[in-house]
Known about the structure:
The structure holds two protein chains of two kinds.
Chain A: E1 4-7, E2 10-13, E3 19-25, E4 32-38, E5 42-51, E6 54-57, E7 64-70, E8 73-78, E9 87-94, E10 101-103, E11 107-111
Parallel strand pairs in A: 2-11
Antiparallel strand pairs in A: 1-3, 3-8, 4-5, 4-9, 5-6, 7-8, 9-10, 9-11
Chain B: E1 4-7, E2 10-14, E3 19-25, E4 32-38, E5 45-51, E6 56-59, E7 62-67, E8 72-77, E9 86-93, E10 100-102, E11 106-111
Amino acid sequence: DAxxxxxxxxxxxxxxxxxxxxxxQTENHRYMYWYRQDPGxxxxxxxxxxxxxDTDKGEVSxxxxxxxxxxxxxxxxxxxxxxxxxxxxFCAIDRGGRYGYTFGSxxxxxxx
Amino acid sequence: xxxxxxxxxxxxxxxxxxxVIKCTYSDSASNYFPWYKQELGKRPQLIIDIRSNVGExxxxxxxxxxxxxxxxxSLHITETQPEDSAVYFCxxxxxxxxxxxxxxxxxxxxxx
Lengths: 112, 112
């Protein structure tokens, strides 16, 4: 798993419900990121974290919030899911040096 | 903020030919330029990167060039093979938070 796991792998939820995606790392890296991937848009940065309780917005943060209460966990919450948030969500850690970013396996979220 | 444009969106080559993918970026403060390969249904994986103090870097059949004055960088794959078929993403970033902004991706198809 390259030191990073995402859960769940797949989720179907209804419009208007809250959803939380989890990213867990085992290597104690400082920087963690959430991206969404959509056809024609590539990978777009939602939020990122540079330490416990230190987070900031990315390119497409509206409708999303994050929390990082422990180094190993970075949570992404959709407060009230909308169909436009149907996407594949990737978490990444920055392992630095020649390793760069390592991505999780992704979460496929469908909002119906 | 940073903006990364990537071209072409699709590229088809014959096995053994070369492939070139180009990216431009907007933020002159960016100092790190990685390239990721994503096979169908998989996570993006780092294949090569370059930092702003270097103009070219090569790793076997893959090379990346950087022109900081013009704010563009390119991926070159020589002697393409069918297993090179994938989506390739460029990215730009670095700095204090190490956040990366990605291009929209290039679907490379290598025809046997």
